[in-house]
Amino acid sequence: MSNKVNRAQQWRLFVNNFIGFTIIFVLLGVIVFVLFRNAMLTSTDQALRVERSSRLNGGMLTKKPMVQGKQPGKQVQAGKAIHPFMTTTLIFNDAGKITNHAQLGSRYDTLKNITLDKSQVGQLHTIQVGGKYNFRTLLVKVPKSNSDKLVAGKYLLIMENIDPQKAAMSNFTRVLLITMGVFWLLSILMSIWMSRLTMRPILKSWGRQTEFVGNAAHELRTPLTIIQNKLELLLTKPNDKIIDQAENIAIANSESQRLQKLTQDLLALARSDSNTLQTNFENTHVASFLQHTVEPYTEIAASQGKQLVLAPVVDFSATLDQNLIHQLMNILIDNALKYSPKGSTITLSAKVVGRKWQLIVADQGIGVSEDERKRIFDRFYRVDSSRSRQTGGNGLGLSIAHWIVNLHHGNIAVKANYPHGSQFVTTLPMNPPVGLGGHHEKKA
Ligand code: ADP
Fold first, then answer.
1. Could you tell me if 299 and 434 lie in one domain?
2. pLDDT of 59
3. Which CATH number does the domain housing residue 325 bear?
4. Which residues face 400 on adjacent strands?
5. Whether residue 226 has its Cβ less than 6 Å from ligand 1
6. How crowded is the C-beta side of 25, counted as CA atoms within 13 Å?
7. Nearest-CA neighbor of 273 among 205, 325, 330?
8. For atom 16 of ligand 1, which residue has the closest CA?
9. Number of domains observed in the structure of the chain
């Protein structure tokens, strides 16, 4: 089911990316095409305008009323005309009849079908003649007062052959379409790659979440089952006194305490996931803060026949969230007590290292093997689950510790303690960047 959802999501991302790419390519293609076509026609249109002003000024028409193609001499007379060889002019009388067919020679047969549309005076148009010749045209109305009697009061259709431009355009369009097609195909691969890339963290956190929920359910089920069994047992013995069932009641009670601790831890981790925790960073005098925090634990240690010692701490201050660091120490000291034998000593110390400070909890207990050192910070990970059950562990403590340290932009590592046991070394910046909510490269 989850795979189906993920695949649907990935497909949606792919389609979105692909549509995005397609829109960009089409827009780019259209813009390039339009710009290229305009650039092509600009010089032709310019030539037509030059020709028009030349005609209206009576320029070359005083000598030669019609400019015809393929006559180099005309270029000189046309003066400013840019492409005179390619220029043909049709002269229409008021009735729309071509009056310069003699000068057009053999081309008249092809051009005679062109009709006069007086409404197009002053307008630029593209026309096709004889099914294959393309011209850009400009229609000019010559005033009656024009010095050249041959054209005075007539209509001139100045035509510029644009077949080379057309050919270049179609070549360019072909190249453009092929290029766009290739890039369009590439964009499919790109879209697949991008959708995969986007999905990767989603899939990762999805997997982590599923695993977390599965583990949490599993952890919750055990104490609940025990409590339920004990209560059902009590119901079968309605006449018993509490004293008779004290052991079962005590077990149910301790399991419910375990359940409470578990739900608290789960809640802390859920908050760490959603980044909703309100932190309260404040400048703290570390020595007195540690002294104050450790005190109650020394009594607990003593009651277990162990010793908890706070090594002398130099005078320094650091910015930290006292509640969270208290929780961190609680986890580390609790573990040190859980995993070390009677008569052993747990030492807590703090020192300044450059612009950071370290909090070290060292015990003389069972220690953590090299292989396990990274994994013990994973959620629900326990080196020896049967032992942890006895000690009441749920494998969440160090994940929470890791999250707290991350929130402070620090790091936590475990080392071997000499001659045996382990050392949990927490390194924290003196002044963490407050308010950023910590970096979560690795979720606790
Ligand atoms: P738990 O609640 O089981 O202690 P933690 O996340 O706090 O869960 O610790 C994970 C595991 O790391 C523990 O199950 C234990 O195996 C190991 N561990 C933690 N602290 C110590 C320690 N001080 N000495 C030896 N092993 C430890």
1. yes
2. 53
3. 3.30.565.10
4. none
5. no
6. 19
7. 205
8. 383
9. 2
In terms of domains, do 407 and 290 share one? Answer: yes
Q: Position of tokens 């099914």?
A: 131
The domain boundary residue, chosen from 254, 271, 288: 271
Q: Which atom of ligand 1 is nearest to the CA of 392?
A: 2
Query: How many Å lie between the centroid of ligand 1 and the Cα of residue 207?
Result: 24
Structural domain of residue 207, as residue ranges?
199-271
Regarding the beta carbon of 422 and ligand 1, being less than 6 Å apart is answered yes
User: Residue 433 is encoded by which pair of tokens?
Assistant: 């960047």
Distance CA 288, CA 405 (A): 20
Report how far ligand 1's centroid is from the alpha carbon of 261 (Å). Answer: 15
Beta bridge pairs of residue 349: 360
Residue 181 inside a domain? The answer is no
The pTM of the full predicted model, rounded to 2 decimals, is 0.60
- Contact indicator for 174, 202 with CB cutoff of 8 Å: no
Which residue has the least CA distance to atom 19 on ligand 1? 335
Cα–ligand 1 centroid distance for 264 (angstroms)? 18
- pLDDT greater than 80 at residue 28: yes
Atom number of ligand 1 nearest to Cα 421? 24
Give the Å distance between the CA of 126 and the centre of ligand 1: 85
pLDDT digits (tens, 9 = 90+) for 275-322: 777 889 999 999 999 999 999 899 999 999 999 999 999 999 999 999
| Strand-pair category, 133-141 with 124-129 | antiparallel
pLDDT tens digit sequence for 342-384: 999 999 999 999 999 999 999 999 999 999 998 999 888 888 7
84 C-beta closer than 6 A to ligand 1:
no
66 ligand 1 Cβ < 6 A: no
Q: Distances in Å between the alpha carbon of 149 and those of 57, 145, 154?
A: 13, 9, 10
